Amino acid sequence: MSKKTNAGGYRAGSGRPKGTGKYKELTQPIRVPVSLIPQIEELLAHKATQDTISVFDNIYPYPKPQEKAVDTFSIPFYASRVAAGFPSPADDHVENHLDLNQHLVQRPSATFFVRVEGDSMINVGIHEDDILIVDRSIEPTNGRIVIAAVNGELTVKRLEIQQKRLRLLPENPRYSPLEITEEIEFTIWGVVVHVIHSL
């Protein structure tokens, strides 16, 4: 039993032991985009109720969200295809109206957008400043392109899972694969389903 003292300052053995807070591990401050704060808060709220487990069992740590309604915005969709070789006569009629939400966002409540920085995925058509459409409800299986948080920083890479080996693979020979070990803080935020690329 420790005795109270009127003297200020640090006392050895006092306070909460490290790693025993609501997250059951050490924490550190990070800077994140404001647009991603809701997803981070959701992740932390779920993690606070979970036991710490192996990184290989914690690839996708939070439950799939429920679907919500989304506003629609329709744009004319022409029936004729655009020739990438020799041109062909175009039809003048509109076949339908295309809602990009419906076409690109299958599960609105599980989807978020993120902008790309860097050129590590350029060989699969993901360039700097592209916008990625990411679905958190899709299982991040071997070979999928994912958004992952590695030691507090977001990255887009191809996921490789082989037995108990987990790696993030770039699609540019200038960069090296990253092997995920128990010492690395690692969480997959979602699977990339579409790329919006400006010409």
Overall description:
The chain is mainly beta and 199 residues long. It has a domain at 40-65 and 109-196: Umud Fragment, subunit A (Ribbon), CATH 2.10.109. Helix content is 8%, strand content 28%. It is built from two helices and nine strands, in the order αββαβββββββ. The strands form two sheets. A seven-stranded antiparallel beta sheet has the order 3-4-9-5-6-7-8, with no helix packed on it. A two-stranded antiparallel ribbon has the order 1-2. The longest helix has 11 residues, at 37-47.
- Count of strand segments: 9
Number of helices: 2
Uncertain residue ranges: 1-5, 50-57, 62-67
Biggest sheet details: 7 strands, antiparallel
Q: Quick one: CATH class of the domain at 40-65 and 109-196? A: Mainly Beta
Please compute the radius of gyration using only Cα atoms.
23 Å
Strand proportion, as a percent range, falls in 25-35%
The backbone outline, from C-alpha atoms, is globular
Helix content: under 10%
SSE series? HEEHEEEEEEE
Give the class from helix and strand content and strand pairing: mainly beta
Tell me the CATH architecture of the domain at 40-65 and 109-196.
Answer: Ribbon
Q: What's the mean pLDDT score?
A: 75
In CATH, the topology of the domain at 40-65 and 109-196 is named Umud Fragment, subunit A
Strand order of the largest sheet: 3-4-9-5-6-7-8
CATH level-4 homologous superfamily of the domain at 40-65 and 109-196: Umud Fragment, subunit A
